[in-house]
Amino acid sequence: MENKNVGEGLLRLPEVLKLYPVSRSTWLAGVREKKFPSKVVLSKRCVGWRRSDIMQLIENGAAQ
39 in a domain, yes or no? Predict the structure, then answer.
């Protein structure tokens, strides 16, 4: 049985920046400008990004 959710999950900002190497300020500006995926609010002071959104961003960037 194949698990379709393999690779799905949430990444915190340091993990995102390891996969998509830009500065923290560049990333956050890109999120505000909707160039990068939207954050997922986990709690009052904790956010993350969907792994699938980040992987899609990387794949689309490599295709351009």
Answer: yes
